[in-house]
Amino acid sequence: MQAVFVNPAYREPAPVRHLKVLRRRRMKEWPEDDRPREKMLATGAASVSLAELLAIIINTGTRDQSALDLAREVLAYCGNNLRELGRLNIRQLRSFPGIGLKKAATILAALELCRRRQQSQQREQREVTSIPEIADYFRSLLSEHACERFFVLYLNHANKVVHEACISSGGITSTTVDPRIVFGIALEHRATRLLLCHNHPSGTLRPSKADMSTTRRFQEIGRLFDIEVLDHLIVTESGYHSLREDGAL
């Protein structure tokens, strides 16, 4: 009979436990009433939340996040503020895991579409009747931009807008405006009045020396062509400054 030697340090191995891996359900696996796209189609766009609208635009999430979770993360970063969302650029959007170049471009396109829709509504009345009214229009147009942009409204003698143009887009603190471009467009559209406007990304409404110099130069050139400079507006997110209301024109 053969002896069997047992190592006293030997221990029976612990039984293998098969853990159940919990997989996060994708949005298309949710109940139909909880899916943003299906909810919007069933009850109308007004019934879905801001996060759900953004989730529809994002379309797909990641392995760990649904599109709705991703939308909530983006909105939380912006303080749930649409204006702040509109300030995000491609690089900032792509910093969120799950948002690549295509999704970032889609989000920016949707925001630009909303911005242009708002502008088109404001353009329906094409006659300039008051400075505060036109300042509100330019604030919606320019306040979200991080660089200075210079716009001109071209008017006829009845103060009806015949053309609108962004003349230049510069840096954070300044932009260069070529009067030859401005007055060339005016002559092309037979405009007799100009309304100038640019934004100050810094938030200050005080006109700079360059602002005053540019305005005076445009007035002098305008007299040669019998084209009047009605006003020069400076706009920020918080308000506007009119050189005419200030007595500088």
UniProtKB/TrEMBL annotation:
The keyword Metal-binding applies. Residues 127-249 form the MPN domain. PROSITE patterns: MPN (PS50249), UPF0758 (PS01302). SUPFAM superfamilies: JAB1/MPN domain. Keywords: Hydrolase, Metal-binding, Metalloprotease, Protease, Zinc. InterPro entries: MPN, RadC_JAB, UPF0758, UPF0758_CS, UPF0758_N. Pfam families: RadC, UPF0758_N. It comes from the Bacteria. Belongs to the UPF0758 family. This is DNA repair protein RadC. The lineage of its organism: Bacteria, Pseudomonadati, Bacteroidota, Chitinophagia, Chitinophagales.
